[in-house]
Amino acid sequence: MKNGVYTSLDIGTTSIKVIVSEVINNQMNVIGVGSERTDGISKGLIVDIDETAQSIKKAVNQAEEKAGISIDSLIIGVPAVNIEIEPFHVNVNVSSTNQEINDEVIHTMVKQIREKKVSSDQTLLSIMIEEFIIDGFDGIKDPRKMVGDQIECYGTVLTISKTVLHNIKKSINNAGYVIDDLLFQPKAMSELIMSEDERRFGTIQIDMGGGQTTVSAVHDQQVKFSKMIKEGGYNITKDISVVLNTSLKNAEKIKREVGYAFVDENDLNNSQSISIDVVGQDQKSQVKESYIAEIIEARAAQIFEQVKAELDEIGALELPGGVILTGGTSAIPLIEELAEDIFEVNVKKYVPDFMGVRYPSFTNGISLVYYKSSMDDLHEMMNHYALFNEKEPPKKMMKAQENGTSELSVQQYKDTQDKSETFMDKFKKFLKHFFD
Amino acid sequence: MSVELIITLSVVVLILLIYTLTYFIRKKHYERIDGLDKVKKELHTKIPVEKVSTLDKMMITGQSKEVATSVMADIDTIEDENLPLVESYLFEAEQATDRYRFGQSTKIESQAEQLLQKIEENIIIASEKIEELLQREQANLRKIDSIKKRYHKVRKELLAKSFTFGDSINSLEDKLGIMEGLFMSFSDLTASGDHEEAKKIVNQLDAKLNEMESMMASIPEINNKIENDYKKQLQEIKQGYNKLIEKDYKFPESIDIEKKSEQLTEGINHLKELLAQLELKKIESEQIEVEKRIDELYDAMEKEISAKRELAKLSRKMPKILYYLTTENKELGLELDRIGQSYQLDQGEHKKYLVMKSILEEQETLIAKVSDKIEKNEISYSVALETLEESFEKLETLSHSYEEFRLRLYAYREKEKEIKEDVEEMEYALREMKKYIEAQHLPGLPDDYLDLFFYTTDQLEKLSTELAKHKLDLTKVLELHSMCDEDVEQLADKTEEIVDNALLTELTSQRLYRYKEEHPEVIETIKYSESLFLDDYDYETALKMVREKLESIEPGAFDSVKDLYKKEMQKQNE
């Protein structure tokens, strides 16, 4: 992991979360968390840019207050909506055999991928590399500094709808922040919640959010499949509210406090009752907890059935890693039992375990910083080319550099962009150290 | 001017001065002596010489004579001794002044002055006494005239209205006779000239007449009361009593009407006797006694009459209340048995029931007995009424006791229900706590917390077992219940505390982390706190570590962290 301070932004349907963490000596410390409810997102898509920008600002301010630093750039999570995931194969001839393969070659490959794989309404988001082949030698992880005539690359390319990406970028800009990086959320998540073996042999992850559920299949270290189902925890709350005739606020509270997602015979027979406020009635009415659980189970099962249909189509449930549940809605007790019942594979739940972040609703946010800090050079560079279609470092980096912001930013910059340091930077750094 | 001349002139001036001074002093003394002489002469003219001679010529005897003699002697003393003495004082004073003995003169002058004052006083006293002696006879005659008028009036009234005075007439007439005698002796004394004695007789007569007048004012009324009111009432009482006896009324043994009537008759007769003797004071007190007796007799009879009515009403009520209470008693007996099977009755309910039952039976017997006596006319209505009323009151109290008893029995069930509800609530609270703490995804929980949690669960289990028993021991249940209540409360506090401590530790660590540059040792602190957090689950100490460190670096920072935490918790709960 690379030392530095990372700030992630998770734009969820019901809330926007910001996590600031610092990596020192391979250890990640969460130093600030912000969370803000929002009305600007619907089913994972931004529907009101201004509203979203406002919420982003508030969430970032919260995190700033906690971390005691000022934040100006964010690592953004991109949801699995209107995306296309496709395998690719590119082939580049190196002009001179004696020349080492350099960044220029990599850039050319990205260019080829863009030309071959990206349709006009889509834009390139990320590239996941399986292997490089140089002159027939396969299994190469990083071809740079090697020599060869012909270099091939196999991998998976990820494209996203231009509109979706635009809305995200616009919201961030409106909020007044610079985009540090745009990361595909399922990919980032898989890096955090799965072990390397799980990623290699194949595992399914289900991110149960407030307004949507994202199912992804990971195999060979790459996200091979990702699909968003536009139902989530909020639908459960709504169901409770409608069935029990109580306000959404109450329903949310009931869900959180007494809800569980798997009902068995035993529960039905000896379940406790709770009293709830009913709209239009002065007296509270008594409801059995098992009844509430049935409501929750019904919706959760429906979501899982949809997920299962998607997974069955590609036969992903055959993957040996089973299913990992995470996301805010996965906090409902016994939901893994229900999932196991439906998917008939091994199901486990992932809850982040960092100081200050112990809720599954923060899995996305924490995975973004985790992934960003542990991303290898090559992927980072290729993604950068893919995203910004240029060889220059991202604007944010320049900005941070010019302003000479916090020590942390400088340090981070130094770690990630060591090679492209200019003379001015060196001079500034010298001055800074001199005065320190 | 020569010294001799000055001295000579001074001496002349001095002599002139002394001469002038003595002249004025002497003049003043002469003036005073003249003044005193004038006073002496005035006093001399004040002596009632004529009146003394009139007195001397008057025909007086006895006590009057004695007084007159002493007064005349006083006058003589003034004339013959005192005034000449003044004369000689004044002469001496004049002489002393002539000889320039002013001191002596002043002394004698004041002696003369004092004596003159005394003489004046004596003359006034003597004059008054003489006047009185001269007037006595006249006064006596005037008084006796008015007394005589009053006497005649009284006498006339006594004769005219003799019937209104009843038996007292003879005594009153005797009194008139006595007064007649007094008039006679007055005439005799006046004739003999003993006006002092005569005056005493006049006073006596006045007093007697006053007494007579007041008696004659009050006696008719007293007589009227005795003759008309008391006697008539006595008669009415006797008649009424006979009528009641005819109508089968019984009177309580404590009130012997016949004997009391007899006593009343005696009382009235005695009153009459007293009147004859004119013992009005005694009459007054005895009248009260007699009236009291009359009232008593009337009351006794009225009581019986009204008791008969009341008794009729109450007798109709009694069987109803008895029936009601007997049924109640039976029902409660069954209830007691029924509830006693489900609960251990620990408040002496069985004993209490038996006591109530025995009271009921006792009253039942009593009422039956009284009813029997009424039927056989063996009891006065008032006594029967009193007994039944007392019994009624007791039954009423008993009815309340039954009511209370019933509530007390049902309270077992109520209490049980209440506790069962409470147990449910507590179980719910425990599950809530478990869920709440689980939702925090803490690395683990401290042993003492887990112990407390399991202990509380066990206690609750025990309580549930106790509640499920066939025969409930509420005392034990209540004891357990209060213990569980406390435990759950404690556990709730503890749960809250653990979560607060854990979350605050994280937030505080984050805050502390900011100072890692300036204070490299904070990393150590955070690590140590983290190990307490992650390995020992000792959130309290973990928090303490980072809190203390943070406070040492940035005083007040912990409070702001805490405020932020509170706000966030609030937001979450909304």
UniProtKB/TrEMBL annotation, chain A:
Membrane topology recorded in Swiss-Prot or TrEMBL: Peripheral membrane protein
Keywords tagged on the record: Cell cycle, Cell division, Cell membrane, Membrane, Stress response
Domain of life, source organism: Bacteria
Major location category of this protein: membrane
Signal peptide limits: none
A GO CC term assigned to this protein in UniProt: cytoplasmic side of plasma membrane
Location(s), subcellular: Cell membrane
InterPro entries: ATPase_NBD, Cell_div_FtsA, FtsA/MreB, Heat_shock_70_CS, SHS2_FtsA
Protein's job: Cell division protein that is involved in the assembly of the Z ring. May serve as a membrane anchor for the Z ring.
UniProt family annotation: Belongs to the heat shock protein 70 family.
Quaternary data: Self-interacts. Interacts with FtsZ.
Alphabetical list of PANTHER family matching this protein: CELL DIVISION PROTEIN FTSA (PTHR32432:SF4), CELL DIVISION PROTEIN FTSA-RELATED (PTHR32432)
Protein name: Cell division protein FtsA
Species in which this protein is naturally found: Alkalibacterium kapii
Gene this chain is encoded by: ftsA
TrEMBL record, chain B:
Residues on Cytoplasmic side: 26-574
HAMAP family noted in UniProt: EzrA
Location(s) in or outside the cell: Cell membrane
Gene that this sequence comes from: ezrA
Transmembrane intervals: 6-25
Domain of life: Bacteria
Residue ranges annotated as Extracellular topological domain: 1-6
Source species: Alkalibacterium kapii
Biological process terms in GO annotation: division septum assembly; septin ring assembly
Membrane topology, from the record: Single-pass membrane protein
Coiled-coil portions: 109-136, 195-300
Family, similarity comment: Belongs to the EzrA family.
UniProt-recorded name of the protein: Septation ring formation regulator EzrA
UniProt KW keywords: Cell cycle, Cell division, Cell membrane, Coiled coil, Membrane, Septation, Transmembrane, Transmembrane helix
Gene Ontology CC annotations of this record: plasma membrane; septin ring
